[in-house]
């Protein structure tokens, strides 16, 4: 796909287009980290404040990495 064609794609078209291998791996790692973060934040045991802070930042970073990786298009 040429760069001009990629520039014309909508978000929905980009999300359903073919994704490069690196971004597939990055997306899967991001989803795993988001799951770990959610598990830490939802745990019924009282965790130290630093753990919950790190888990919340990790969740945000993982979500952003997964979202950006999903809309990367192989060109």
Outline:
By secondary structure, the chain is an all-alpha fold. The chain has four helices and no strands. The protein has one domain.
Question: Could you state the order of secondary-structure elements as H and E?
Answer: HHHH
- What portion of the residues fall into strands of 2 or more residues? under 5%
Q: What is the number of beta strands?
A: 0
- For the record, give the distance between the C-alpha atoms at the N and C termini, rounded to a whole number: 5 Å
The amount of helix comes to over 70%
Give the integer mean of the pLDDT values. 92
Report the C-alpha radius of gyration, rounded. 16 Å
Helix/strand-derived category reads: mainly alpha
Number of domains: 1
Low-confidence blocks of residues: none
Q: In one word, what is the shape? A: elongated
Mind summarizing the main beta sheet?
A: none
Total helix count? 4
Q: Would you kindly provide a written description of the structure presented here, covering whatever features stand out?
A:
The model has no long low-confidence stretch (mean pLDDT 92). With 75 residues, the chain is mostly helical. It contains four helices and no strands. The protein starts with a helix and ends in a 5-residue tail after the last helix. 8% of the residues are buried. Helices cover 72% and strands 0% of the residues. The chain has one domain (3-70). It has helices at 3-7, 11-16, 21-41, 49-70.
